[in-house]
Amino acid sequence: MKRWLVLVHGGAGEIGELSPAQEHSYRRQLRRAVEQAAAILDSGGRSLEAVTAAVQALEECALFNAGRGSVRNRQGIVEMDAAVMDGASRRAGAVAAVRSLRNPVLAARLVAERSPHVLLVADGAEAFAVSHGAVRVTPEYFTSSYFGSAEDTVGAVALDVEGNLAAATSTGGTAGKLPGRVGDSPLIGAGTYADNRSCAVSTTGTGEHFIRTVAAYSIHARLLWGRLSLEEAARQVLQEIDALGGTGGLIALDAAGNAVALCTSPGMYRAMASSDGRILTAIWREEPWQES
Ligand code: ASP
Fold it and tell me: E strands within 14-118?
């Protein structure tokens, strides 16, 4: 049997003390998200389907800063960003600053598959997505308090049995951001990237630094032309971000099935499932993967 693999993240950040009950619910939700993706990959489905399903599951869960749990901008309004990229075709789609879509990741997918464009923003993105069946919600759907109680961005990367890589990322952005601010998540090459020749990457953290270092593409470039290992490439890029005063983390997979989940912040919610049947989670920076 050919190997498949999926990783998800639920954002990097401070992650203070978690009660055992809180920790349990984070691990349970991460696990549910990778299980959605695992079911697709295990039945021979495409990595793009798998990352979309995992991110959609996390958008539905109010614990994370994406979809339902999105944080609010300075005016108290939710503005969300999302992207998907397929490593086989290098087709990509993204939406930014959308306010009323239930699942921004599905809208990003529609942009990739039903439009000639890569990135649609605000009203235009919403109208396009709704015209293709995306579900709208009213402001009460979003559960975050003024600046949000959720932690960070969500994302997924996957390798399917055909050897195709894909990445997806979705976020409410940074709490208290200026209206109209767009982070790294929906910018192809900054927060999201996938190319079968190299790797699939989804990032989380201080988005401006990930944009300035073109973080996800920088990992790809180090693999493709610099011949670095995935781990070396990811560490270098996080170091570069750190040197600029940024912080965060990323998940990445290469075409050979090597996986990394690294962060410079105290923690990053993360989970992994693979064709060997194991589902693993971790929260704090140095925490080894654990069965959960
Ligand atoms: N990177 C996201 C952004 O800047 C936020 C996060 O990951 O916490 O929009």
Answer: 80-86, 91-98
